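Journal club prep — side note

Before the paper discussion, L.F. wants everyone to see what a predicted structure for a comparable chain looks like in token form. Sequence:
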Amino acid sequence: MEKTILITNDDGFESKGLKALIEALRDLANIVVVAPTIEKSACGHSLTLTRPLRFIELDKNFYKLDDGTPSDCVFLALNKLFKDKKPDLVVSGINIGANMGEDITYSGTAAAAMEAVLHGINAVAISQVCRGNCYGVYDLEFKLAKKVIRDIVKKIFENGYPLKERKFLNINIPPVNPTECNGIKITHAGKRVYNNDAQVHINPRGLEYYWIGLPSLDWYHSTSPLSNFSDFDAIKDNFVSITPVHLDMTHYDSIKRVENWIDL
């Protein structure tokens, strides 16, 4: 029986990364696309609750969701397009820019995968890391990203999904061609160095406004008991990073400490 993949992203329905993802997977399954009308980068795991949303069919099995978020796209696609039979997999991307470390919590790309696994559907988020200006990734033509996601989806279909419920695979692709890639590392989410890159400007009417920029991709070196490589470390060394992510944000090692603290 033919498999079905629901595809979405947070860069909008016209994104070159989305088109590359469709090209990579179109002969592996029946592809259904539901993507935001406009870019929704850094929208996180948000649903639109204060206004109505509308599906606009652009082609067979290709829809844009009028001003919807990636989470809206998955949530409403499952409600409208997949009432009787759920998709076999949700793939979100190919995002233009990294989604590593704590940035996963900002990411609309990752959020679409989160929404999928909340509904019991296996999911993968994939992002193309930039080096310097993100427009430079277009020169790479997403060749490595397309190869990796194709191989991963084939492996899922042939060997099963490697994670249990409410967990998804977060993939980041180094900014190199396939011949320059050193392989795949299974990583933990690293620790990002954050700074304030909000720029102040004055509009023609003399009013001050702010534009939040993109800070440099700096990080702290970190290890875990099971992984010496963070996603940042893997990308630096030209490895593909695959991080298993779970939605339970409880820090279990701190439960006893907080119990003792609250009793003081």
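L.F.'s comment for the group: DSSP finds six helices and 13 strands in the chain. Keep this in mind when we get to the figures.
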